[in-house]
């Protein structure tokens, strides 16, 4: 399994736009065979940082999702929402793997 961790720098004045963007991606990732673990929005502390976590069974499945999303109209509409509103200033993507807890592995 591969888990993708996204850290967003968002425009705090456009939080509602970012929330809509996140709601759409949760549904889309799940439709493409992933498991979305949610978006995590500012509460206390930094008002312009948000996170998202989602997983795919493996890196090959994640790459297929990335390829398929390029031609999916709903994915492209969602990306356009972020571009049009400017709710995302920048983001970082990390790939993580779970520790299974078994000794010697």
UniProtKB/TrEMBL annotation:
It comes from Streptomyces fildesensis. The lineage of its organism: Bacteria, Bacillati, Actinomycetota, Actinomycetes, Kitasatosporales. Coiled coil: none annotated. It comes from the Bacteria. Residues 8-99 form the NIPSNAP domain. This is NIPSNAP family protein. SUPFAM superfamilies: Dimeric alpha+beta barrel. InterPro entries: Dimeric_a/b-barrel (IPR011008), NIPSNAP (IPR012577). Gene3D superfamilies: 3.30.70.100.
